[in-house]
Amino acid sequence: MKKNERSLLLISVNNFYGGGEVHLRNLARLLKDSCEIHTLVFDAQLAADLESLGVTVHRISFFPRAMRLLQVVHAFCVLPALILKNRVRGVVVSGTVETFLLMPAKIVGCRTISMIHLSPFVGRGSVLRKARRLLIEAVYGVGVLFADQVVCVSEAVAEGMRKISLKKRIRVIPNWVPSIPETMARPESRVPVRLLFVGRLEHHKGLHLLLSALKDASNYELTVVGDGIEAEQLRKAASGMAVHFKGFQADTAKYYRDADIFIMPSLGPEGLPLVTLEAMSHALPCILSDLPVHVDVSGGGNAAWLFENGQVESLRTRLHNLVESSLERNALGKRAYQRVVERYSPAVAKEAYLQILALSR
Q1: Based on the domain organization, do 162 and 303 belong to the same domain?
Q2: Are 68 and 14 in contact (CB under 8 A)?
Q3: Out of 88, 108, 288, 325, which residue is the most buried by the measure of CB atoms under 10 Å away?
């Protein structure tokens, strides 16, 4: 089968550039040499990143960013013509509400894949926010009925999905790092020790816990890469501390290379944080909250240290012990790197996706 006879459409009409959009971009990079890739997206930065990969981008940009539901309706209307015109054989949708778009794709004869990054949840917050989340999950529950396969980015996500979808349709294909860097030697003793946090500046990502754990500590400096709705609040909380906020960075590799310890203090929910895999791929010793997905990624705590989720004192103790032991940092970094090579490499992910999309022949 020729490449131009194997056309694939990747869809994300989310109104921000989050983990699902990074995953979709990485999937396009992973498969672009194996099939013809088309993408249907809303976010301008995501569109630019995809165009730089040489894939075909179709933008949904008629409605304002805040009107996500109308964006989905717009995509629903244009999707059949887009599929037929470009002879699309398979459609992959990233997100929850967007899964409703699998209906027209299935009707016109495409193989349909729902790519899910989080188990269904209602979450924290006001009654209105919970009701909104419940509506989103209800729409997802309808849309997923039209999926030939549901791809979960971790076993932790799959456990939740098995409660609402047929088990035979669920497939776990873990997140992966786009490339595995060459290993590099890190200084065994450096003062101050360089700590790193990468992620959205929102409550559930747990940066406030890390700042609390570092109160009254010395001989460290923390670099924070990311932006979000709590950025200003977190900057105020870090006032007077050795904390450097770098904002959103498209290229985070240099921060992983320059760091001594990576911390992911997320409260959850999490699917499989790509930033954690990226840190581990740089042989960077990691401290993670003991969410089920972190237990899995770390091999039960072998390839990363775990602390009790939400507990500042547990995180403080773990940080102190790892900061004090350069030998343990070195050994932990090596185990982290090996874990990524074995389970989260591009080669492993590519073979799995080619099979599930029926593109391996």
Answers
A1: no
A2: yes
A3: 288
313 lies in the same domain as 350: no
Q: In DSSP terms, which residues pair with 220 in a beta bridge? A: 193
> Is 162 contained in some domain?
yes
In a domain, 186, yes or no: no
State the pLDDT confidence band at 14, using cuts at 50, 70 and 90: confident
Residues 116-134, mean pLDDT to the nearest whole number: 71
Q: Which domain holds residue 21?
A: 3-176+345-356
Of 68, 170, 75, 162, give the one whose Cα is nearest residue 115.
170
Asked if residue 182 belongs to a domain, the reply is no
Q: Could you tell me the pLDDT band of residue 1, with boundaries at 50, 70 and 90?
A: very low
212: number of Cβ within 10 Å: 15
What's the rounded Cα separation, in Å, for the pair 124 and 41?
Answer: 28
In this structure, is residue 184 part of a structural domain?
no
Q: What's the distance, Cα to Cα, between the start and end of the chain in Å?
A: 7
Tokens (6 digits) for 306: 């775990």
Q: Looking at the structure, do residues 270 and 286 belong to the same domain, yes or no? A: yes
> Is 154 in the same domain as 233?
no
Number of domains in the chain: 2
Three-state secondary structure of the chain = CCHHHCEEEEEECCCCCCHHHHHHHHHHHHHCCCCEEEEEECCHHHHHHHHHCCCEEEECCCCCCCCHHHHHHHHHHHHHHHHHHCCEEEEEEECCHHHHHHHHHHHCCCEEEEEECCCCCCCCCCHHHHHHHHHHHHHHHHHHHHCCEEEECCHHHHHHHCCCCCHHHEEECCCCCCCCCCCCCCCCCCCCEEEEEECCCCHHHCHHHHHHHCCCCCCEEEEEECCCCCHHHHHHHCCCCCEEEEECCCCCHHHHHHCCEEEECCCCCCCCCHHHHHHHHCCCCEEEECCHHHHHHCCCCCCCEEECCCCHHHHHHHHHHHHHCHHHHHHHHHHHHHHHHHHCCHHHHHHHHHHHCCCCC
CATH number of the structural domain spanning residue 32: 3.40.50.2000
Model confidence, pTM: 0.81
The predicted model gives 205-233 an average pLDDT of: 95
